[in-house]
C-alpha cells in the first residue's frame, strides 16, 4: 500500500481533510496515515478526537506518495515538518495545503516560491500576525484567486473547496483515468 501522510494538530479544521482521507482509504492502492508532532490525542475543530499513526520526526526516512496539510489557525512549523516538506518537494511528491494553516505551512517551508497557489490569507492582518508571526511569508506574485490551484506537485485550496481539493489530490495520485473522469466525480459529488 502506498501511503499518503496527513499532518494533524489541535483545533484543525478537520472536515477539510476527512473526505480526502476517506477517498484515499477506499482506494485499493493507497492508505491515509496521520502524523503529528506528539503522540497524543488531537481534538479537531469538530470535536472529533484523533490519534496520529506516527510522529512527524519518524517520517524522514519513510517513503510516501505525498503529504496533506490541514487548515485552521495554526502556525507552528517545526524543523522536522519543514524538513519533511522540503524532502517531499525535492522528490516531487504530492504536497497539498488547504485553507489557512495548510497554505501557510507550505509558504513558510518555501514551497510556494516557484509555484502558483491560492490561499484564504489574501492580506497579512494583525490577526494573522498573532497566529502565524510578524512576516508575511506568501510570495504574493504567485497568488491566483481561484478555489483550487495545482501547479507541478503542489495543490492549494480554500477551505470551502474541500470537494474540489479532494478531487485534485486524487487526480494527482493517479486515481482518475482522465480529466473527464475527475469532472464526472465532481459533478456527482456536488449534486
UniProtKB/TrEMBL annotation:
<protein>
    <submittedName>
        <fullName>DJ-1/PfpI family protein</fullName>
    </submittedName>
</protein>
<dbReference type="Pfam" id="PF01965">
    <property type="entry name" value="DJ-1_PfpI"/>
</dbReference>
<dbReference type="InterPro" id="IPR029062">
    <property type="entry name" value="Class_I_gatase-like"/>
</dbReference>
<dbReference type="InterPro" id="IPR002818">
    <property type="entry name" value="DJ-1/PfpI"/>
</dbReference>
<feature type="domain" description="DJ-1/PfpI">
    <location>
        <begin position="2"/>
        <end position="169"/>
    </location>
</feature>
